Amino acid sequence: MKKYLIAAAVALAVSGAHAGATAPRAENPYLSQQDAAARAARVSNVDYTLDFTLTGKESFAGTTTLSFDLSDASQPLTIDLDKATITSLTVNGKTVAPQYNQWFITLAAQDLAAGRNTVTIAYTRLHSTNGEGLHRMVDPVDGRVYTYSHFEPAAAHQMFPVFDQPDLKGTYQVTVSTPADWVVSSTMRESGVQDVDGGKKWIFPRSKKLSPYNFAMHAGPYKVWEDNSGKYPMRLFARQSVAAQVSPQDWFKYTRQGLGFFDQYFGIPYQFEKYDQLLVPDFLYGAMENAAAITFAEGSFLHKEEMTTAQKQSLASVIMHEMAHQWFGDLVTMKWWNGLWLNESFASFMGTLATAESTEFTNAWQAFYSSGKQAAYVQDQRVTTHAIETPVPSTANAFDNIDAITYSKGASTLMQLRHLLGAEVFRQGVHNYLVKYQYRNATLDDFIGSLGEAAQRDLSGWTKEWLYEAGVNTIAADFSCKAGKVTSFTLKQSAPNAALPTLREQRVQVALFQLGARGLALGKNVAVTYKGANTEVPELKGAACPDLVYPNYQDWGFVQVQLDKKSFATAQSSLGKVEDPLLRSMLWQSLWDGVRAAKLPLNAFLDTVLVNAPGEKDYTLLGGITEKIAASQNYLNAMGPSAYRSKVGLKLEQMAFAATRAATDSNFQRRWFSTYLNLASSPAALKQLASILDGTLVVPGLKVSQDVRWDIVTRLNRYAYPGSAALLAAEQERDKSDSGQQAAIGAAAIRPDAKVKAEWLATITDLQTKLPFSKVRTAMGHLYPSEQGALNEQTAAQRLADLGKVDKAAGPVFMRAYGAAMLPATCTPASVQRLEAAIVKLPDLSAGMKRSLMVTKQEDERCVAIKEAMTIF
């Protein structure tokens, strides 16, 4: 699953009793690891026969037959099924009255048999509307109904009765009755389609063994593209009303390249025979690795004009990420949800490697450094940091720690391990692991053991340091020079604090640079394996005394770099003289790290931006710079009105618009114009945007697509530009698509009007609202932009007072979005104190909500510190 974005799924029921166990399964929607282990000890050889009847209406019907071996029939057994109406239940041929609590069915011991058992359950259930289970969406453009399944981490039982835990793999034989114009995609390719009663019956052969969360079934009147030019047949699905926005040739190209790469790298052919990919609406995450029927979020991968290079690279990267899961996650699966991080880390690592080595995006590791890795550094410096491997006591906690540490720090540690062991040894270890555990479940020790055997090395110490200890270390160069030569050189490693004391072993490159007439030139570079607090680097003695030292050159390590004073000054003054785009990116990041640590004044950073950003020629690096500009603007907005904010805001607007006009490459022009859109707040800039919207101002080369039109309308409404409400109404008439409806909600909620805020807040907190969750989430994200501090303050106390009640009533999916957008932080000491008081007053919040509250407080403290560090305000 690709998530950065990164949200939790409602984790639901699964469990079982154990021979000799006295405690029954807890009467709640969650499955404990203990109960799951007990059930797995009794149940094996699971086969599902699934029959679904889909009409397009709000509910569906199903009949599930489970066949399984049971080693101990002396205790009851549970089968997971969420919020269904059971119409019949037979156990080993006997009709029984269901013992059912809306979370799981309990089968009585007297109805079970040691050996093979068969259970048949007929039921009806409402379709889900929150992105889990069997989700249903009605297209507002043409009224067509689309469904798709999503089960991670434990939501298969929102669609059919199942042992919903990863270590009870099963086979799936599926039959689906649908309206006549629908198509169905599942793990297998259909073996037959019959015309029945004005509709169709789709018949699928039995699948290979899969964990329940890797199985899928999607159905609706999708547009289908096919490509058989590669080794495996490929299909792409999308809603009819958005089909024109899809570029199937790009999807098929990257898919074909990836399948070729992974077949060769893993040394095991792709196992699932065909490769379907579906663009689906209302999706919770970026994508999901269902075996042979992968789903992708429309909002991330549909574009109303030709894709930019960055958008194509993102598409390629996510295709590769989900494809890596087909081997690592689907073929070999973790035993319990504590292993989910390894699935995601490995897919992030392999997805980046495949993108770099099999597509045109050879700079994929640079993009990874600028995006995912930076998010991991931020996450790892928070008060909520955690080890990569953490306990997961129940499905309620499955997504508590799924974040940038899970994805990108984990991927970085795997890259570091590859450097330590050697690329071919690492690959051989992975191959051996996949061969040994295919169609089975495995643990972290199994994976690390395979790598250790290939390397003939004990990796237990590495595993403890990197995977079981939290926090990110810092390295710094400590060196002396005499007569222009280095006389001593030591790498100093430090831990974050006494609570996170671990020092780690790591292999990095240490590079020395000198300033010359042609810029910053590499003088010497050595690979160093360091550990402990101090590591001498004798190879650098006698080298020319550097103007800049970078002790993680080419980004081998996962570590914060603290530049020495001379190197920091060189970085600040000489960014434009650095030819290597990755090094340039890392030096930009060092400056930004200084801002976030309140060591470099934000105004000094923005001075550097104004001088250097317009001349940046590397497209990927420019994206990192513009993200930092946007973050800077958010800090300034949160700090409140000031003469400096107005002055530098004008300069940044003018810089971005001038760069938009000057760009000769459409990728650069679109990136700069997007930056301008995100900066525009002065009357002059807003007027320019309005003129671009109505066509009276034409920027040569710039295409004003429907997406751009909505961005402009939203920006004008954000600042209550005269006539902006009418522009919003007109755009709603112009674009009645689902994405248009989403954009209209954002533009309406963002207006700086107390009445508007109150109305949307009431809708958001009404857990019975008929508004789909995807649209509620959009409203949350737009309700309190950074400059609307006064409006934010009006309901701040109310939101915190109601937080416990909302947290208790809503599920983790809702609260993940709520915690990211709705907690009041307004960059003042009083705001920080208010959040601290809420942490104390609300000890019973869910684990996820506690984390959100703590992170919000820490980031609010950071904003206050950045404000205090500014030399001009």
Automatic annotation (TrEMBL):
<dbReference type="GO" id="GO:0043171">
    <property type="term" value="P:peptide catabolic process"/>
</dbReference>
<dbReference type="GO" id="GO:0005615">
    <property type="term" value="C:extracellular space"/>
</dbReference>
<keyword id="KW-0378">Hydrolase</keyword>
<dbReference type="InterPro" id="IPR012778">
    <property type="entry name" value="Pept_M1_aminopeptidase"/>
</dbReference>
<dbReference type="GO" id="GO:0070006">
    <property type="term" value="F:metalloaminopeptidase activity"/>
</dbReference>
<dbReference type="InterPro" id="IPR024571">
    <property type="entry name" value="ERAP1-like_C_dom"/>
</dbReference>
<feature type="signal peptide">
    <location>
        <begin position="1"/>
        <end position="19"/>
    </location>
</feature>
<protein>
    <recommendedName>
        <fullName>Aminopeptidase N</fullName>
        <ecNumber>3.4.11.2</ecNumber>
    </recommendedName>
</protein>
<feature type="domain" description="Aminopeptidase N-like N-terminal">
    <location>
        <begin position="48"/>
        <end position="213"/>
    </location>
</feature>
<dbReference type="Pfam" id="PF11838">
    <property type="entry name" value="ERAP1_C"/>
</dbReference>
<dbReference type="InterPro" id="IPR042097">
    <property type="entry name" value="Aminopeptidase_N-like_N_sf"/>
</dbReference>
<dbReference type="GO" id="GO:0005737">
    <property type="term" value="C:cytoplasm"/>
</dbReference>
<dbReference type="InterPro" id="IPR027268">
    <property type="entry name" value="Peptidase_M4/M1_CTD_sf"/>
</dbReference>
<keyword id="KW-0031">Aminopeptidase</keyword>
<feature type="domain" description="Peptidase M1 membrane alanine aminopeptidase">
    <location>
        <begin position="255"/>
        <end position="466"/>
    </location>
</feature>
<dbReference type="GO" id="GO:0016285">
    <property type="term" value="F:alanyl aminopeptidase activity"/>
</dbReference>
<dbReference type="GO" id="GO:0008270">
    <property type="term" value="F:zinc ion binding"/>
</dbReference>
<keyword id="KW-0732">Signal</keyword>
<keyword id="KW-0482">Metalloprotease</keyword>
<comment type="similarity">
    <text>Belongs to the peptidase M1 family.</text>
</comment>
<dbReference type="InterPro" id="IPR001930">
    <property type="entry name" value="Peptidase_M1"/>
</dbReference>
<dbReference type="Pfam" id="PF01433">
    <property type="entry name" value="Peptidase_M1"/>
</dbReference>
<dbReference type="GO" id="GO:0016020">
    <property type="term" value="C:membrane"/>
</dbReference>
<dbReference type="GO" id="GO:0042277">
    <property type="term" value="F:peptide binding"/>
</dbReference>
<keyword id="KW-0645">Protease</keyword>
<keyword id="KW-0479">Metal-binding</keyword>
<dbReference type="InterPro" id="IPR045357">
    <property type="entry name" value="Aminopeptidase_N-like_N"/>
</dbReference>
<dbReference type="InterPro" id="IPR050344">
    <property type="entry name" value="Peptidase_M1_aminopeptidases"/>
</dbReference>
<dbReference type="InterPro" id="IPR014782">
    <property type="entry name" value="Peptidase_M1_dom"/>
</dbReference>
<dbReference type="Pfam" id="PF17900">
    <property type="entry name" value="Peptidase_M1_N"/>
</dbReference>
<keyword id="KW-0862">Zinc</keyword>
<dbReference type="GO" id="GO:0006508">
    <property type="term" value="P:proteolysis"/>
</dbReference>
<feature type="domain" description="ERAP1-like C-terminal">
    <location>
        <begin position="548"/>
        <end position="853"/>
    </location>
</feature>
